[in-house]
Amino acid sequence: MKTLSQTRSRLMTATTAHLSIQQVSKVYSGRRTVLDKVLKRTSPDFTAIAEIDLEIEPNTFVSIIGPSGCGKSTLLNIIAGLSRPSTGTIILNDHPITGPGPDRGVVFQNYALMPWMTVAENIRFAIATVYPQMPVVEQTAIVQQYITLVGLQGAERKHPHELSGGMKQRVGIARALAINPQILLMDEPFGALDALTRGFLQDEIERIWEQDRKTVILITHSIEEALLLSDKIVMMTRGPAARIAQVLDVPFPRPRKREELDQYPGYHTLKAAMEEHLSNETRAVEEARIHASA
Amino acid sequence: MATNRILPTTTERRRSLKFNTDQRALILFFIILGAFLLLWELGVQAKLFLPIMPSASQTLKDFWFWVSDPFFDYGPNDKGIGLLLLTSLRRVAIGFLIGSAIAVPLGVALGLSPVAAKAVDPFIQILRPVSPLAWLPLGLALMRDSEKTALFVIAISSIWPTLANTKFGVSNVDPAYLNVAKTLGASRWRTIRTVILPAAAPSIISGLRISFGIAWLVIVAAEILLSGGVGYFVWNEWNNLKITSIITAILVIGLTGLLLDRLFGVLQSWVSFGQRS
Asked: Could you read off the pLDDT of B170-214 as tens digits, one per residue?
């Protein structure tokens, strides 16, 4: 545990963030103009998430898990500033979030790498956008540092179409981290990957996070993924008007190993609680859909 | 590891004895070409066609005359096919560059602004289907100069495909790329320059490719009414009743068009980087 405390002390000085989500709701307006009424195509408002309250402490790894369509991604997009909340505010280090910005690094599910840029150029694009005054030599050094961090040495000059899905997402992670954000947002980053690559990348995230403990918010469908990586797991109810059902603490010591995970005390209790919640919510979603279509 | 084979190898072995698809297509190509030339030659020998029709052998001989010495110059009405081609290519290049210099920036602007795109669309829809030759008299009236008129007609008819494709490419950039730029806090100008334009490049180039094809079609037609270039040559040789020269010109025009289209194809795949375009 000595290395752990050393890492902790080093990270007291690292940039990280306290995030406070206060009464955040997102309502998508339905059609109800005069024209819509004439054409009889009015639709009611759709409340994706309702009155979400969540405090995220610095240097914590938080996973948000819930049934599909519960507004997890909506919440993440609001934190990223890509979408505006209908009500409520999100405060990052005492400043309310009003739009997107480089204090938050985003890892996208579909990687979102520019296909015309090489691996190195994709990462450099992020750095040069955020730090336009930085000398090129320094930019190059940072690019190389993060390529090494995600283990992509040798692939610097490859274009995304030459990479596997797992390699693409490693570039996505390197790009998000290279701008040194205060908080890292990941929207189902491994959702499009096969199970083996997924497991491998989860281990990579665990390893990277041990080196650089940022505040992280991870959206996921996977219970194992949440248990392996998180300090806290936020379980959401089903939508519409999704809320936070429960916040679980994951007290397992770090660094964690996938193969030893189920030996930690409390692992099975936590896993059972999550499985029960998710299966109940998913069953309710399915039933609601049956009644809606009937 | 013969034990791991699932399929028998006989089908592979049988195929290797035959020609592949490309080779068979090439053989068929030569058979069709040979049959065509043979029928042509025999038809002329048997006087099946009008007397003006030259024989295949005569046409090939004259074709070789033109192609073997393309750059002679014996006065304004007696130039080699290479010089004529260069005259036409120069006109096409200048007209095409003028047209593209209007179409690409305008297309980008329309792609970025849905309101402007809707407002300008009626103008485009009305002008786009007009035959390029309908612009000729207008050009002559406005410019009073055949050279400028040629450039005007080329420019105006090469605008439309580039304009439409550029607009489409810019307005259909993958929102994921735009979100990346937004989350990094990129300025509007930086987003356009480093994200939107490269993402739209395959569409823009494919528009330019279609535009250039049209410009090459139009120049030959326009030159029939103007002077100089391969189009003028075609018309002049018709007045001289030299059918072999006309056929030569048709082949040279076609081959040049093909070559230029291939060059644009190379450019297109160069900017695509595995993007679907």
From this structure: 999 999 999 999 999 999 999 999 999 999 999 999 999 999 999
Enumerate chain A positions whose Cβ falls within 8 A of a Cβ in B. 80-82, 100-102, 104-106, 108, 110, 112, 114-116, 125-126, 129-130, 159-161, 179
Distance CA B166, CA B160 (A): 10
Tell me the residue type at A40. Answer: K
**What is d(CA A61, CA B118) in angstroms, rounded to the nearest whole number?**
47
Total length of chain A: 294
* Interface ipTM: 0.85
Coil, helix or strand for B50?
coil
Contact predicate A177/A95, CB 8 Å: no
Is a pLDDT exceeding 70 seen at residue B12?
no
Nearest to B85 by CA among B266, B262, B250, B273: B250
- CA-nearest of A210, A217, A157, A137 to A181 is A217
CA distances from B252 to A145, B23, B265, B273 (A): 56, 26, 20, 33
Pairing assessment for the beta strands A46-56 and A19-28 based on DSSP bridges: antiparallel
Which chain A residue shows the shortest CA-CA distance from B174? A112
Instruction: Round to whole Å and give the CA distance between B158 and B213.
Output: 9
Backbone angles phi, psi at A102, to 5 degrees: -75, 0
A 10 A CB-CB count for B41 gives 16
Q: How far apart are CA A161 and CA A166, in angstroms?
A: 12
In a 13 Å sphere around the CA of B185, the CA atoms on its Cβ side amount to 16
Which residues from A are below 8 Å from B184, CB to CB?
100, 102, 125-126, 129-130, 179
d(CA B59, CA B41): 10
Prediction pTM value: 0.82
Report d(CA B80, CA B167) in Å as an integer: 41
